[in-house]
Amino acid sequence: MGIWKKVTVHPDCHVVFQKVYYSVPFRFVGQALWLRATDTTVQIYQDHQLATIHPKATRLGFKQTLEEHLPPDKAAWLMRTPQWCLKRASEIGPFCRVFIERLLGDKVLDRLRAAQGVLRFSDKYSPARLESACQRALRHDSIGKKVIQRILEEGLDQALPLALAGPTPITEPRYGRAIGALLQSQH
Q1: Whose CA is closest to 148, among 130, 162, 122, 165?
Q2: DSSP string of 166-184?
Q3: Which of 21, 28, 148, 169 is most buried per CB count within 10 Å?
Q4: Angle (CA) 38 46 65, round 5°
Q5: What is the pLDDT of residues 88-124, one digit of tens each?
Q6: CB within 8 A of 42, min separation 6: which ones?
């Protein structure tokens, strides 16, 4: 018989049933559809017509996504895996790579969108600014997309505080007399 539930298609082309995400063709975004779940399948209907069918997932938070359900631009973004994120971060710079590694941490799938979002900042601001923002965030041990966003929006990546910029180079002797005078007076 199965369970019936009315669901709404989210902007990411998924509906949620029992804390699991199931993709639906993107033309249904924003619409209310009917979902029928059995022990083995999840079927989604619009006006008594089957829109899609998925095997029923058993893990909470799992995403059942069919690439053909996504619009072309989202499908391309979905293919940006954790490995792609790490490769792209390495291309931007070493601080960006370390930042993305730490962001993904041991919850790679939970934080993949955040990592993709951080890397997308290189399009808006520039790879060099993103690298500087990652460096600053790492110095403060602040790992998160919102941290990078704030650093970039406020321009904090462009001017490191004096204490973080490194010591001021010494151009004058540090003693009261020149080093030559000190060495001559010791005979």
Answers
A1: 130
A2: -PPPP-S-SSSS-HHHHHH
A3: 148
A4: 60
A5: 999 999 999 999 999 998 777 678 889 999 999 999 9
A6: 17, 22, 35, 36, 53, 54, 55, 56, 57, 64
